[in-house]
Amino acid sequence: MSAVTSAAQEESQRDLQFHARVISTFFMAFLIISFPLLLFFCLHRRQKANKESSSLRLAPGPPGLPIIGNLHQIRGLPHRSLHQLSLAYGPLLRLRLGSVTALVVSSPALARDIFKTNDLALCSRPNLTTWRHLSYGGLEVALSPYSPRWTRARRLLVVHFLSPRPVRGLSASREEEVRTLMNTVAAAAASGRTVDLSKSLICLVCSIMCRAVFGKRFAPAGECSMNEIGGMIFRTAELLGEFVAGDFFPWAHRWLNAVTGVQGRLERNFKEWDNLFEREIKERERTGTGGGDDGTYASVLVRLLREEQALDVRRNGHNGGDNGMGYGGAT
Q: Partner of 255 at 20 to 30 A CA spacing, among 84, 145, 167, 296?
């Protein structure tokens, strides 16, 4: 019986070795065939790009490597790398960052001419993965590309939130938060504790934002300390400043963002903000504070939404529908 079992094990081991040799042979053949094809594809694209460049008057730029272009030349602090390149190639510099062509302008006169004379052609924001994801697909004023909808949203922002009257209306809460920060720093100094002013100032900004948007603080009363929103803002800032490989290789952005973990972190951060907004909306509905205008940004948004819906009812003769401004939640 043992001899039969041993023979079966040896047969199984030989099968495994055979399958392993077949897989390794197939893998090596795949590499041998695919590498020349990839090289030919890169050379063909480069030759095509050179032909297009020769027919156009393009800005000068350093030679790049296949596939990654000039990404390897942007090291450490990007602004210093770009400054060194501009010293070698001039104030108008063309770089190929992966599959994306970028124009670097380091001359104030040229920048003024570009943004003043050709502002409509160059005023839009890039459609970056992080910005697109965190702005509900481009619905936020600060991160969305230029469009008629962005123009209308910006007008509402300036008139109802950034004009002198609403800014003066929130001056008392801003002054109170500054006093709270000063008392927190003074108490820490009196007890001999060190104070991280960077975090303290971020906490101050978070508290002012919470008072302006929601009409309440998220930090303990009488203290200026890191709270829930402060941590979320930290994580959002890290994501906005992070290198996202998919933005430079749009043809492979899905799997690149998944492999590098960017997509997962974006999903978690977006979920945090979405849950916060949803929770505050339900809280206002539960307490009945959503109907009045208490001067906070949330109440102003509710009032604008209801005015727009009422206008839709009068215009179209039915309730609901798209108000054209995208005030709804995430889809």
A: 145
Q: Domain boundary at 57, 75, 92, which?
A: 57
Residue 275: in which H helix or E strand, if any? helix 262-287
The answer to the question of residue 86 being in a domain is yes
Where are the extended beta strands (E) located within the chain? 92-97, 100-105
Q: What confidence score (pLDDT) does residue 267 get?
A: 92
Residues 219 and 85: their CA atoms lie apart, in Å, by: 46
Give a yes or no: residue 308 inside a domain. Answer: no
pLDDT tens digits along 191-250 = 888 888 888 888 888 888 888 888 877 777 666 666 777 788 888 888 888 888 888 888
The reply to whether 65 falls in a domain is: yes
Determine contact, residues 323/147, Cβ cutoff 8 Å.
no
Q: Is 119 within 8 Å of 103 (Cβ atoms)?
A: no
What gap in Å lies between CA 206 and CA 40, rounded to an integer?
A: 53
Determine the Cα–Cα distance for residues 163 and 140; give it in Å rounded to an integer: 19
Count CB neighbours of 13 within 10 A: 10
Q: Are 40 and 51 found together in one domain?
A: yes
Rg (CA), the chain: 28
- Encoding tokens for residue 325? 């401004």
Residues 43, 94, single domain; the answer is no
Look at residues 212, 232, 210, 213 and name the one whose alpha carbon lies nearest to residue 221: 210
CB neighbours of residue 247 within 10 Å: 22
* Domain extent for 19: 1-57
- Higher-pLDDT residue of 209 and 47 is 209
Kindly state whether residue 97 falls inside one of the protein's structural domains. yes
User: What is the residue-averaged pLDDT of the chain?
Assistant: 77
Q: What is the DSSP string of 194-227?
A: ---HHHHHHHHHHHHHHHHHTSS-SSPTT-----
**pLDDT, mean of residues 115-135:** 80
Residue 312 predicted with pLDDT over 80: no
Q: Based on the domain organization, do 176 and 224 belong to the same domain?
A: yes
Instruction: Indicate the range of 21-30, 59-68, 107-116, 143-152 predicted with least confidence.
Output: 21-30
Q: What is the tally of structural domains in the chain?
A: 3
Secondary structure (3-state) at 309: helix
